[in-house]
Amino acid sequence: MDKYVRDLMKRYPILDINNNEIVKAFDIIKKSFESGGKLLIAGNGGSSSDADHIAGELMKGFKLPRKIDEVFAKRLRLVDSEKGAELADRLQQALPTIALNNHNSLNTAFLNDVDGSMCFAQQVNGYGEAGDVLLAISTSGNSSNILYAAVTAKAKGIKIVGLTGRGGGRLKDLADVIIPVEETETYKIQELHLPIYHCLCLMLEDFFFSKMD
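Structure (tokenized):
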């Protein structure tokens, strides 16, 4: 795994101070996936797009093909010889990840009926279980809907990884590990978040799928 972090630091020297936190975040997420947990991701605006991006990298092949195992492939073919064979050939193994921003009917209903600032918290309450991980992305570390989600996660025994800007804001007091990049302007923070989460996705894919035939 070190090769990915070394490459990241080489390309983005400003992230050198975040080295240890990135490795810790990887370890927390890896252990969750190993034990059958899932990753929940929450973010606003550009960070909402980052949540989608991360889910896309983890739920399908990023750099590796991730072919499904032969036991499942055989089951698919038994269900339907034609479609099952196509599925067996094309499906990819996934790391279960949910971007919480995508559920528009649920989020707008909760906003209209209850409290919009708690939309992510409601999903953490509904989806989350002890052993899962919440990746909370907030450039300030102070977004109220992210903090409500983090409080809910902590109460449910869900680990929290925070991705923020300089200082970490109030999120640093709730997160199990916080990765605060050394920028204060939103767009500059987001520019550094992308290589960090790409590094994490590469590390996770390598760990879980590099030894596949």
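The first helix runs from residue 2 to 11. The mean pLDDT is 96.
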